[in-house]
Amino acid sequence: MSIARRKFDCLVIGAGGGGLRAALQLAEGEAHVAVVSKVFPTRSHTVAAQGGMNAALGNVLPDNWHWHMYDTIKGSDFLADQDAVEYMCRAAPRLVIELEHYGVPFTRLDNGRIYQRQFGGQSQNFGGAQAARTCPAADRTGHAILHTLYQQNIKARTHFFDEFFAIDLLRDADGYVLGALVLEIETGEPLVIEAKTTLIATGGAARMYRTSTNAMINTGDGMAMALRAGIPLQDMEFMQFHPTGIAGFGMLITEAARGEGGYLLNSQGERFMERYAPNAKDLASRDVVARAIEVEVREGRGCGPNKDYIHLKIDHLGAELIKSKLPGIRELSMRFAHVDPIEAPMPVYPTAHYTMGGIPTNRFGQVVAPVQTGPEEPVPGLYAVGECACVSIHGANRLGGNSLLDIVVFGRAAGNHILEYLKDSRYHRTLTETSIEPALQHLLRWDAKGDGESADKLAEELRRTMEQHCGVFRTQEILDQGVAKVLKLRERLQNARLRDHSKVFNTARIEAFETENLMEVALATVVSAAARHESRGAHSRVDYPERDDLQWLKHTLYSRDAQRLDYKPVRMKPLTVDSFPPKKRVY
Amino acid sequence: MKFSIYRYNPETDSKPRMQDYELPDDCGAIMLLDALLLLKQQDDSLSFRRSCREGVCGSDGMNINGRNGLACILQLDTLKQPITLRPLPGLPVIRDLIVDLTQFYNQYRTVKPWLINKDPEPEIERLQSPEERARLDGLYECVLCACCTTACPSFWWNPDRFLGPAALLQANRFLNDSRDQATGERLDDLDDPFRLFRCHTIMNCTDVCPKGLNPAKAIGHIRQLLLKRVL
To answer: How much is the pTM?
Structure first.
């Protein structure tokens, strides 16, 4: 079988904010860059980010990057790598300004500068008064940033392969990544994209849960590709549940609703967060607020006929503020919950939101993995940024407003590092048929005919399993059952069959590939969670309720091969400042 | 619940056909997209685009009972049965409800949808007052779903020469931006009997926009700017 080939300096897989920011850096740096995306770029999930992007501009209240760094590390429950966090927080102000210069329509203050709102887990002066650090474009910040980055890429004449689905990475015998095998969705034809460097920017995998804020495309494709290429995934047990998804649906109601002055109420009309976080109250870290809501509902203080949600009240903020600063979530609430938040509180409940773990990288975006049993080393030619990557700046719990920052900072950093790498790698390495063969076999997988279960049904079972066995509160027994169930589902998936075998825009086939990816990443998540015998950030063990720094201040590495687990130390040493040692985390 | 859905697979069908589908009333679907996902479980060959399922990504634009809209934010119980679904009109159909949007995206790119400012970059943000920023509201929120442009008869007749309401809305977004310095250049490009002036204020665009935006008003504003220039 002869497959068409294209050659580029760099292949970017994924066209969300991370992929587009990297591509822009590369295109402006005169590299020949191709962006492959399974959806048209502006449909990527960055579009749904609402509240804003953190940077210590100090436009509203005093601020500096060092305080931002402290908050991020405390928010991470001390699992973040401190060199990467310092790098990110220092770069933040400059990169927000850069986005503004690109044209992002940020909300403004009377003096013409960018407005900054309060968000969870932010403080002045290392744990003091609330800070105001989050730069928004109303509550459509992701939309504004994604569209702007796409526009800048059109201007820079980046090559786009819209609606191409990446099947697998191509790796040679020396371990170099030489591009990917992709599928043109419209024609059903495969294409080999050869590249000296490949950057994975495929986003998160919260679609493994039944209720999720995530778009249907968030199936962890890049993470699964990395696993199949023999690269481990890091810290997958840390899945963020956003405290305020629309109850029963999961659509996100931004933390900005609380940042602007909204608060949570239980069925007794009590502001219960005062009990859980006496200082920060409703603006405690997301893991803290999500647990509080679950406890309130469990103890019978939920709202509604079934007492299964909590109220988020913002009506006291006034119609004008809501219409100007929170128009998007008002629209969502009216449409899905039939509640106009100007008049009544919104029904909310914690919802799977963000994958803190992912493909291990350093702060240059290089994918790093241990070579056999040795220390970790960069995988030559491979990079990853954004939610699919784990640098790690989010550790065990991400702060709101740090994900848009993450994609811009590390998208740019990876772009720069790739430009350096290209200087020393002037020619493509030889890509042989042997390197393509495994990907090709995978591509043909869903051409198998005959009877079998549908992949779609198994995906639904997977989402239920993850909800029941790997949710906000976890125990050994429930997690172990979860591992067994996901393994079983993965086995059944091998015998699943498609009914539709047509080539042209066969979405059933794409969904089947996505289900395979989701299954691998879900297994990584539940296996990693079952092994971590402590509670840290978003990983809450009822049977191990305390954080255990002696044994567990380390990153998990999950390999697909026999679900092996390894661990590596947290980088506690920042670039220039003193380390923030672990201490008790209270809000 | 009864549905009648446009089906066309170029590999097997010589021409398109309408296919009937049914779902039990208590299937739990609330939005039209929920129903489509259930129907796809019955028949995995039924093809449509979708992603965010909350009206922000713009993937699932289609013609619903004769009117363009986003399936994910249209409530089923507001739709008359049988719910008739067709691809967005006026563009080549790839398969079922999936159209080829190449022309639509090309027109978008034509208006140079990026900020043009030739001054040296300041160390801080370019200042913009809240009032100046407010002039971008109703423009920057476009999700590029193509509902407006494919509802426009002027675009149907001249898809290669008339920019269409979505691209013109984008053009106006940058004309309205106090930070943009290319007003003259942009207006030169738009001052054309086809690119802009094929708009006959039929207003379908504004009527169907699922985000409640007003492309017709944006087009009116561009006309005003052009008029001011010659006066």
So the answer is: 0.97
